[in-house]
Amino acid sequence: MRKIWITLVAMLMVFSVAACSSGNNGTNGNKGASPSPTNETKETAAPDEGKKADPVTLKFFTALADRSNGAGKIEQAIIDSYMAENPNVKIEVEALQDEPYKAKIKVYASTDALPDIIQAWGQTSFIKPLIDNNMLLELNESEFDSSNFVPGAKDGFSQDGKLYGLPRGTDFLVIYYNKKLFDDNGLSVPTTTAELLEVSKQLRAKGINPIATNAMEGWSLPIWFEYAAQRHTGDFNKMDAVLKGEGKFSGDADFLAAAQDIAALAENKGLADGFLTADYGTSRNLFGQGQAAMYVMGNWEAGLATDENFPEEFRNNVGAISYPASDKGKATDVAAWYGGGYSVSKTSKNTEAAVAFLKYFFAPENWAKQVWETGSGTPAQKFDQFLTGNETALQKQLVDIFSAMTSSSGTPVHDNGTDEFKTKVMEAHQKLFGKQITPEQFLTEMDAAVAVLK
Amino acid sequence: MHKLMSNRITIFWLVAPGFLLFLFMVCFPIIMSGYYGTTNWTGIGAYEFVGFDNYTKILFHDGVFWRSLLNALLLLAATLLIQHPLALLFAIFVTHAGKFEKWFRAIFFIPAVISIVVTSKMWVSVFHPNFGMLNKLLEGVGLGTWKQDWLGDPQIAIWCVIVVVMWQGFGYALLLYYAGLQGIPKDLFEAAELDGAGRVNLYTRVIIPLLSPMVRVAVVIAVTACLKQMETVFLMTNGGPANTTQFIGNYLYKTAFSSSLYGYGNAISVVFVIICLIITLAMNKAFKKDVGEF
């Protein structure tokens, strides 16, 4: 009798373990890594989305990790007001920084569990695998006419004439500078590439870090090199042509000259101490605390002029210039692209609700207006009507760079291929800027990276 | 009870849950990894079978992989030759610290208690070339010429990482040895003293040999920790500059998740598992010799 009992208990244990694990599998498979029991009951209770009053939970995955500053704060504010206006909709936000975000979205994608609305980049390396594997919902372009997107802004999110996402902003790389550091040392802000090198030498001689950037993550360097190359070739398209297999990096005099420019800058310690191990926050702080004279970063950092974490002296003295000109490339040739945006998951149970939210989000008076007025970036929508006249000097400089633009680079070179290509390109740049390889070796490594694409 | 345990069916049912867990959580994923390692899967979508291409590439053409392994061995050597003797010395010191014993014990264990994220980021600040404490300190004592870009210099970075990892693990090593020392009966100390053994003899001839079971445990833990090293490197340098501080765990992560080479990443993990198995076997062989009881 006793034996039977023991056997029964043991069997019970086995089956309860088995039941638990299969239960977990089920939820993971459907809803991603963080299923909470409350949502599940809500979602299963509302199988019919037709009626408006039915409660809907949207999962929203974004790479704007800072929810209390800049663009992230506005994104959250719009989400909050949408939920207030539509009490039946609940939006659950998950936010991670860029690189962790991109890692996690792959986990979601490979387990077929994309959140309803995801941040997407209109760049081959990110969006193409998702589109090719039928994971993104095709959006109806006409539904978003009233959002007034800038012409060309949606191109990166389109494939074969179909639209799979909407861009949030226009990005371009600039050099921020600390006017006070320049004035105090009797230097003027560089207007040519030769001056950039000269100024860097002089700043270094005075014990000041010339240029800060986030080289640990690596993506700012290839865009920087695009500038350097354009200033020799006079044409941003030449690099794109090499990626398409027309020509090579090595053996090209212009690319070599550009790589030599960068090497010269590195040789003269033009880059801030420790830049290779500086992540985004570290490099930004170095500049914001007046420890570096220049900062190579995207236009989304217009908030530098208003960030209370930095001394007032800095905030009043921060300015921005386009990359210095040369005899071939003008300062109005800008490395600009349409960066982050949103896409809707095709497997979402609430596609209608998700699209409705995006419509609300991109209504001109929401995202475009608020992001502009707070200086958190440059929207990819027309925003002239929201110019208040109260913009900071930095914002005005950024707008001037943007509106004076005569040619643009389009998608940054490292985002024009697969992730493997991207890693190789960024590593090659880290080595060049870090003086670990010669300009010639750099071009060979770039060719090796392009070879991955074939 | 004896009758119960001799019943095979009962034993089977009692073992089954644990065994199934082990099977599905450990064995099955490794087999799956082995399979994915033979594909060119990018994480999303379809993939093709590429045979043993990934494995041959790792073994014969992947400098970064071997560099990572070398770094792990460097770390292991530093741990065994520097961290552990120091930890043992400090453990002896702590046991003799009298009324401060508890204080020192707590102080030395602090690094192990604080989150690795915090301590890693703290060390990144300490090593920072501009405002880092280390460079400021060197400048302060007149050694300005010794200032370095500690984590940015390919020659030095790996040593900085090793120092930090050793510092983080110091508390655990100390605790192990300290616990070992507590386990040695007090009468042995007295006996040795009566026989006229000095302090040095007491430790080198009596105590340390008796500690060898603990040394064995500590070494096994050190080996696994060094091979698995990932968090500190990820947080401090992410393998940079130019992969000179790369460790296998981090390289594997970077390959699979940043470069989207899941097939290749899986192949790395399988090779890594095999290397770990070989090292474990070698260690078991080396530790076969039994130590006497006390």
Keywords:
heterodimer, A: 454 residues, alpha/beta, D-Maltodextrin-Binding Protein, domain 2, six-stranded mixed beta sheet, five-stranded mixed beta sheet, 14% strand, globular, B: 294 residues, mainly alpha, MetI-like fold, 0% strand
Describe it for me?
The complex is a heterodimer of chains A (about 450) and B (about 290). Chain A is of the alpha/beta class and about 450 residues long. Chain A has two domains: about 40-165 and about 340-380, D-Maltodextrin-Binding Protein, domain 2 (3-Layer(aba) Sandwich), CATH 3.40.190; about 170-335 and about 400-450, D-Maltodextrin-Binding Protein, domain 2, CATH 3.40.190.10. Chain A contains 17 helices and 15 strands. In chain A, the strands form four sheets. In chain A, strands 7, 8, 9, 10, 12 and 14 form a six-stranded mixed beta sheet that branches. A five-stranded mixed beta sheet of chain A has the order 2-1-3-13-6, sandwiched between helices. Chain A has a two-stranded antiparallel sheet with strand order 4-5. In chain A, helix 8 (about 220-235) packs across helix 10 (about 255-265) and helix 10 packs across helix 17. The longest helix of chain A has 30 residues, at about 1-30. Chain A is globular and about 75 Å long. Residues about 15-50 of chain A have low confidence and may be disordered. Chain B has a single domain, classed as MetI-like (MetI-like fold), CATH 1.10.3720. Chain B has 14 helices and no strands. Chain B is flat and about 75 Å long. In chain B, helix 2 crosses helix 14 (about 260-285) and helix 4 (about 65-95) runs antiparallel to helix 11. Chain B has helices at about 1-5, 10-35, 55-60, 65-95, 100-115, 115-125, 135-140, 155-185, 185-195, 200-210, 210-230, 230-235, 250-260, 260-285. Chain B is mostly helical. The interface between A and B is large, with 44 and 40 residues.
